[in-house]
Amino acid sequence: MRIRENYNHTLYACYTGYITQAIVNNFIPLLFLTFQDTYGIPLSQITLLITVNFIVQLLVDLAATRFVDRIGYRASAVTAHVFAALGLIGIGVLPDVFPSPFAGLLVSVAFYAVGGGLIEVIVSPIVEACPTTRKAAAMSLLHSFYCWGSVFVVLLSTLFFAAAGIENWKIMALLWALIPIANTIYFTQVPVSALVEDGQGMSIRQLFSTKLFWIFCLLMVCAGASEQSMSQWASAFAESGLKVSKTLGDLAGPCLFSVLMGISRVFYAKFSEKIRLPKFMAASGVLCVASYLVAVFAPVPILGLMGCALCGLSVGIMWPGTFSLAAEACPKGGTAMFALFALAGDLGCSTGPSLVGFVSGQFNGVLQTGLAAAILFPLAFLVGLLLFRETTVRKCKTAVTADIPFFGNISRHSCFFILPLYAGTIITLCRQLNANGMCTSSRLAQILSAQVTTQASLHVGIGPRGNICVKMIPRTFSSIPNCSSLAQAAAFGW
Predict the structure, then answer these.
(1) 148, 181, 322, 477: which has the fewest Cβ within 10 Å?
(2) How far apart are CA 252 and CA 311, in angstroms?
(3) Distance CA 151, CA 22 (A)
(4) Does residue 73 or residue 440 have the better pLDDT?
(5) Residue 183 and residue 81 in contact, taking contact as beta carbons nearer than 8 Å
(6) Is a pLDDT exceeding 80 seen at residue 336?
(7) What is the predicted pLDDT for the residue at 458?
(8) What single-letter DSSP state applies at residue 5?
(9) 228 within 8 A of 348, measured Cβ to Cβ
(10) pLDDT (tens digit, 9 = 90+) per residue, 139-153?
(11) Which residues, 6+ apart, have CB-to-CB distance to 121 below 8 Å?
């Protein structure tokens, strides 16, 4: 079968697209200290490169809701890879061309950030639009390639630097640029279908008026925050908090984190027909909470590293799983929905690490306290899943009680378990931090305990039959346009 007629080639191009995104996000951070030594750029300015990358990607996510459907998926994919390639080439060329090396780096980062942001927006809907039967499996497998790309970027770049010398980093930048260049050509040949017919997708106003949309946004924010809170700080946590060497910390922390995250996504792609996605996501959320607890309270370094790595396994399905649930529940969401979800996810990717750094800074740089605070994100993710389930149940008028992961449809008396479980986790955690001397004040415990208790109370109320149940405020839901029917909701079944 010709390339232009074979959608397997479309999937391969999308896989390569996520590898490109992994190159964009993970190669440059390996060179931060090199930039400092070579060009005399202070770390304060180098940090600005991260900020610019993040801001540009967010702006692209937002702008994509307007122009992607107009120019088409193929043109958007080609444009994304062209910008990514230009950015990587610029990294190796522009610092020596511009009067200020930092200006050259800044322009290069802006270029590849446009490419990375656009790839995040369009690749998922392209895969969703492919005529495949196992949509959730395809989505999970797609996102696993970001993990494999991250691992290979770190390993291959490290090997190259060891063999050729770090002074030849410009050559490596040009070599990495060959991948988006090749994929640009590839995307001009593969078949590409539209997710929805022209003009049939939901508008931004319609999305904003849909309850499920905001629940999925919550899930995306929490998924990004749960992932990046650990991955971005894993190396520093291993070195300063667990007192292990940087080499061991990087291999057993961020690197193993990415490997296990990829394994989780491949696992679900393999067994998706036998595993219900909401249940798998709920199990992952619980495991994520456990992994953070292990990392924070591990009595020996090896257990702390295992907690960091286990977090990668737990967060693997959160991001692609949310995309799959949203595509199933709101089939008319279109490109705008995926773009806004990418925006929400990127917001979480920034918020999570920032919270860890801020809280740690308030407690004398003890990273355990920051990671303890980040447990709020996987807990909120679990609450989001409960809200998703209850919203679909209410939409279909099939039940009035709450369906709790691993407990099934629970009685009114059993519902009293919800609030203590939710709030008690953080309360116990904060008290333990104080008891271990990790916090110099009980202020953090007070704040977090009050916040969690308040948030949890929002989701516990009196049902229409007078029973206690988990509910979303407001209690009465309006009709949800273009969302799942009874049959679709049953397919989600927990």
Answers:
(1) 477
(2) 12
(3) 9
(4) 73
(5) yes
(6) yes
(7) 37
(8) G
(9) yes
(10) 889 889 988 998 888
(11) 60, 61, 64, 68, 76, 335, 338, 339, 342
| Pairing outcome for strands 408-409 and 403-404 | antiparallel
Q: How many CA atoms does the CB half-sphere of 273 hold within 13 Å?
A: 3
pLDDT at 394: 59
Among 295, 284, 258, smallest CA distance to 373 is for 295
Q: Is the pLDDT of residue 344 over 50?
A: yes
The token pair that represents 334 in the structure block: 């279109």
**pLDDT recorded at residue 449:** 45
List Cα–Cα distances, 219 to 307, 382, 446, 477, in angstroms.
22, 8, 26, 19
pLDDT value for 430? 53
- How many CB atoms within 10 Å of residue 491? 12
| DSSP per-residue letters across 7-58 | HHHHHHHHHHHHHHHHHHHHSGGGGHHHHHHHH---HHHHHHHHHHHHHHHH
The domains of the chain, with CATH numbers, are 1-195 (1.20.1250.20), 198-399+408-494 (1.20.1250.20)
**Residue 339 corresponds to which tokens in the numbers above?**
């773009």
DSSP-based three-state secondary structure for 469: strand
Tell me the per-residue pLDDT of 183-219, one tens digit each, with 9 for 90 and over.
999 999 999 987 766 556 677 888 888 888 999 999 9
The residue count of the chain comes to 494
Which of 444, 25, 18 lies closest to 232, judged by CA? 25
CA dist 49 and 32 (Å) reads 10
- 210 contacts 480 by C-beta, under 8 angstroms: yes
Give pLDDT tens digits for 18-35: 999 989 888 887 787 788
Task: Say whether 470 sits in a helix, a strand or coil.
Answer: strand
Tokens of 455: 């948030």
Q: Give Cα separations from 317 to 74, 342, 356, 407 (angstroms).
A: 27, 15, 22, 21
